[in-house]
Amino acid sequence: MDLFAPALRLRLLGGDVDPVTPAEMLAATEVFVAGGGTAVIANHNSHSLFLLQRTPALRAFFEDAELTQIDSLPMILWGRLMGLKVGREHRSTYLDWREDFWSLARERGWRVFHVGGAPDVGERAAAAIRKRHPGVNLAVRNGYFDIAPQSPDSVALREDIAAFDPDIILVGMGMPRQEDWIASNRHLIGRGVFFPVGAAFDYEAGVQSAAPRWTGRLGIEWLYRLLSQPKRLAFRYLVEPWFLAPAALADVGARFSRR
């Protein structure tokens, strides 16, 4: 989309990101929906940047995305240190924009389909969303299926999606599984704006505790999550960032070359 990428696209810690605010991201979503066809609105954080170095398919996914949000205040602060035109207002993640998104979906009559989560979680999340935003048109499908494109599960899911004819497809199956599914199915489905949203519906359903929004504003949301789930997240938050050191050094080199 020419409004945002590649004109403002930045190279940061080995990944390409678009410094857009949540409001700008939603404006882009409206344009994509109105244009028909498909689009992908992705997001980068330290975990995705770590996986990006090791997963060619994930690199291809991000190269194909129309817009890539910055889902990390530490990334933004690093970008500022590197002299890039990026600020706190460009942090754009589901928990930051969800209420505006669902209000807009209701106002525009968007049909939203969510794929992912454990059985029953989607239904609980949908009930919570409809309670806050009555009239939202939302369908859900759990993430327990064979994601191979030609598996019976995937074929049946695409048929269900085609019957629902969504404008927006939220995919919450964890990284990189959700990105793999989007990459394999985007053009087979042929319509809709795809968002990888991770554990968004787990938060909506109350099966995971969302970090208070002030932790995100301070850049310590990762610490809240680490303390909440230390066994699952210790490697992600305490080890993976060290693997970004070469990319950080490349950013430093790029900054000096701009002088």
Structural write-up:
- The structure is a single chain.
- The chain has 259 residues and is α/β, with parallel strands linked by helices.
- The chain has one domain (10-254).
- 52% of the residues lie in helices and 15% in strands.
- The protein has 13 helices and 8 strands.
- It has helices at 22-35, 46-52, 56-64, 73-81, 94-108, 121-132, 152-164, 177-189, 200-205, 213-218, 221-228, 230-238, 245-258; strands spanning 10-12, 15-17, 38-44, 67-70, 111-116, 137-141, 168-172, 192-196.
- A 6-stranded parallel beta sheet has the order 4-3-8-7-5-6, sandwiched between helices. Strands 1-2 form a two-stranded antiparallel sheet.
- β1 and β2 (15-17) form a beta hairpin.
- The model is unreliable at 1-6 (pLDDT under 50).
Quick overview of this protein structure:
By secondary structure, this protein is an alpha/beta fold. The protein has 13 helices and eight strands.
The CA-CA distance between the termini, in Å, is 30 Å
Q: For the residues shown, what is the average pLDDT?
A: 93
Largest sheet: 6 strands, parallel
For the biggest β-sheet, the strand order reads 4-3-8-7-5-6
Question: How many distinct domains?
Answer: 1
SSE topology string:
EEHEHHEHHEHEHEHEHHHHH
Low-confidence stretches: 1-6
Number of helices: 13
- Helix percentage: 40-55%
Multimer state: single chain
- CA radius of gyration is 18 Å
Task: Give the tally of β-strands.
Answer: 8
- Shape type: globular
**Beta-strand proportion:** 5-15%
Given the helix and strand composition, which structural class is it?
alpha/beta
